[in-house]
Hints:
Blueprint: H1 3-16, E1 27-34, H2 37-41, E2 52-54, E3 57-63, H3 64-70, E4 76-81, H4 102-106, H5 110-115, E5 128-131, E6 137-139, E7 149-158, E8 161-166, E9 173-178, E10 184-190, E11 194-198, E12 204-213, E13 224-230, E14 233-239, E15 258-259, H6 273-282, E16 300-306, H7 316-328, E17 333-336, E18 340-341, H8 345-356, E19 360-364, E20 375-376, E21 384-389, E22 405-410, E23 414-418, E24 422-426, H9 429-446, H10 452-461, H11 482-491, E25 496-498, E26 511-517, E27 525-530, E28 533-539, E29 544-549, E30 555-563, E31 569-578, H12 597-605, H13 625-636, H14 658-666, H15 685-695, H16 718-727, H17 744-758
Parallel strand pairs: 14-16, 14-17, 15-16, 17-19, 19-21, 21-22
Antiparallel strand pairs: 1-3, 1-4, 2-3, 5-6, 5-7, 7-12, 8-11, 8-13, 9-10, 9-12, 18-20, 23-24, 25-26, 26-29, 27-28, 27-30, 30-31
Amino acid sequence: MSKTYFFLFLILFFISAMPLTAKAAGEQEWIIHLKNDKEVKMIPSSSLKILEQEKHEWKVTATAEDINRLKAFPAIRFIEPNKQKQASSVFSYDDPLLFKQWGLEKIHAMSALSSYKEKPRNLLKGLKMTDEQTGQTILYEGQALPADEWNIDVQNMPLSRISVTLNHFEGPWTIKIFDEHGKLLGENEGAFLTIDVLLPKKQAFRTLRVQILGTEDWKSQPSFRKIYGTYASRVAVIDSGISSHEDFCENVLMSLGHDYAESLPYAEDTFGHGTFVTGVLAACGNNEKGITGVIGNAPVDIIPLKVLDRSGNGDDFDISQAILDAMKMDVDVVNMSLAGKGETLMLREAVMKALQHGMTVVAAAGNQQTDTSTIYPASYPGVLTVTGITDQSVPIPIANYGWDVDISAPGVNIVSTFKENSYETMRGTSLAVPYVSGAAALLKAEHPDLDAVSVYHMLVRSARDIKEPGADIYTGYGLLQIEEARMLARKQPNVMEWLTLKNGQPLVQPASHLIGFSTSLLHKQAWLFVNDTLQKSWPITANVMTVSLPSIKGQASVQTVVTDSNQRLLAERQIQIQGEKQEEKSFKDVPSSFWAHNEIQQAAELSIINGYGDGTFHPNESVSRRHAMMMLNRFFQWPIPSQLEPPFEDVPVTTPGFLSVSSAYEQGIMKGYDTIFKPNNPLTRAQMALILAKSLKLDAPIKQAHPFEDIPSSHYAYKEIQQLTELGVVTKASRFRPNGTVTRAQLCAMIMRVRAIQS
């Protein structure tokens, strides 16, 4: 390959190897035209991760600066921007206040709304129904049913709810549903024209018998005006209740609501907050009225559980009862747009039971402008805590902050439904919560088998970073992105997530934390490493487990790995945490006059090296092969090895540095001595040159060799030593001393020189 094509290959490889899920700052799409098919074949396209390729035209993402560099190469005919086009039709929803709902576009909800413009289909339509008394069979197409007891041939179709609407009602009545064996599956009673009954999810039945009771004393016996069946995810809105509203669909299940706060016969909203929250979540879409909820018309059922009174106040006793009742109803998501100071064991245990039951518990960060560590339920372990942002993607000024914050959503100038068929505008973290609850419910509606840990993963890992890089105390992982979460859910990877730890989080020790596992990882083996030292290994017996972390000083790397029975890697998660604060690292045996003082200080600040307990560094000591791998891994961040089966007999998994040694071996960066590694042997300077060159993937030809007296061209590390010398990683001297050992100071110096080159 000529130099022209070699450099073209390198530049295109750099451009196309970037992740396709998001473009870096300043990037856009370009079309690169090569001169002819022969030119294309000279570039190994199998090595490129380009967006698309059509003969000798390529679509890539790149910055304008990258494109300007490429234009100089003779293999390229010309480069042009990849112009974007839009559909000539406009996104059409008939709700008149949709234009005020800036948050829907902000969180990328429009694609989901487009998918759910129409109301969910009645799954009972087209099924055979038999009058229990007369034996008459009809094909149900939505017509009225004159009798009060019907058998439905559901043909092994799963259903999560059946609702019956009477032609009239004169008082409380009851509906019961039985399976083909006469087993009672569900019942409900109420003074509503429509009564809803929840059915066991993930079950299929041949036939169902629907029976009306309690109408014997009515002046006129009722009949079924309508019977409706669906398979939907469930959200419990634990708030001030829900008022009837023109902009609510049949999925707001008033007959299943309960009032814990004011002893009302049903969850009537006397405050207005719960009705507002429900509108953000589930206002009927495309109905020519008001607004559109974040779920559109997706199959999601809403159950109102009233715990706040007419002044908006409630207590932990009632909230706990509502959570436990939601658990009995097998809801998927709990929406708690409420917050306050003070904790109780009762509410903490209720939240934990809900998590263990597989429910996603979503709560507001609160509006007190204080640290979330004193705010509940936001700071209870495992709660998905939501803060609010403005249309400029900055936190709303009144929002609380802290490491409990997981994700952000719109929280200011929010328009939604209110009491007495009205609409209001509000602000606060409470209003951000239903965006996230709706997204979680939508994922469950589209993927019913998705567990709560996976739902958490899909939401936070697809969030768009909007403040400091990575998670932060003001916005969590970033801004909710519904379409990106849906895309991630379609892949359904093995998931392992720390539910109470984030990258960069300070850690007061000792402490226990929650870690979650997707159902696909149950009965597999988990491994916990801190600073590349195995702390414990345990079988995964539940989706959410408690793990104790040891006392940590300074910055530490926490690596969690899940393997199968053959110790093959299934999932891994690595985070950096800050333990007990240490004074600025300065070593008493490394004076400012020491030749590598600055490099040692830099390496210490980056946590690449650690000193000894007595405040010394021992800069002139030789570095062992094991310690060298650990230091280099902290710098290069090699991938976790694909299996935890030790590659060397003398480096078992319990050896500090096991992951670093195994990763270096798997990446082809270093070799052992047949079946052993000799971890405590000192590393030679020639070995160090080989390892650094392979870590940097150096393959450029040597331009001008430096005449080391003790490195002939036949030396096994000749090329690598010369490459590092050209880069300035190795200093030019008369002798290299290839068989001499590398000192701790020398390793620090070389790593920092590499860092300077990379930056």
